[in-house]
Amino acid sequence: MSGGVTYRKFILVMMLSIGTIGVTMLTGCTRNPEAAKIEERDGLLFISGQDKLFSGKIVDTVANRIIEYEVVDGKKNGEFKISSINGSVQMAGTLKDNLNQGQWRYFYPNGQLESVGHFDNNLSDGKWTWYFENGKIREIGYFKSGKKDGSWTIFDEKGNIKRKAGFKEGQMIFNQEFDKEFFT
User: Are 78 and 69 in contact (CB under 8 A)?
Assistant: First the structure.
């Protein structure tokens, strides 16, 4: 997330997925005819016009993207995936009780892995790795409860270290730039 550009992209994608989930819940296009119309009330999904919690798979198309996720007793649980109309996966992860949980993967339009990391109760947690489209590592860093925490290393497209930084609870505690001429 050098220069903040990738981090902003990450936040934008997360906002898109969260916003898309909300839109999907309201539109309710699904493979399950019984749940063709669902509605959200107090963070739970109900069969429209009933007090019955919805369980099933949601598949919807929003903003030229296919959104898929499982719902159990009104809460999003299980695999979550956003794909392009042509079927290439753009984002995949797991939801537990409406929250991002476990490993999430994000992909470039060409299908190449863009980033991979973990969530714990909807907050980035643990090691995250970002890649260039050529497959080389762009950045490796750690989060704790949604804040940068620990060592971060940023690479150039050739695999050389450009910068190392350290964070404690989201605050930068050191930043070391490496001389580009050293690597040429």
Answer: yes
**Bridge-partner residues for 60, per DSSP?**
67
Write out the two tokens for 75.
């809460």
Q: State the pLDDT at residue 74.
A: 96
Residues of the chain with pLDDT under 70: 1-36, 180-184
- Cβ(74)–Cβ(54) below 8 Å: yes
Tell me which amino acid residue 38 is. Answer: I
Q: Where does the chain have alpha helices with state H?
A: 5-27
For the chain, domain boundaries: 1-107, 124-184
Amino acid at 125: D
Residue 67 has which token pair? 């959104």
Q: What is the rounded CA–CA span in Å between residue 94 and residue 161? A: 32
For the purposes of burial, counting CB atoms within 10 Å of the CB of 111, is it exposed (0-12), middle (13-18) or buried (19 or more)? Answer: exposed
pTM: 0.77
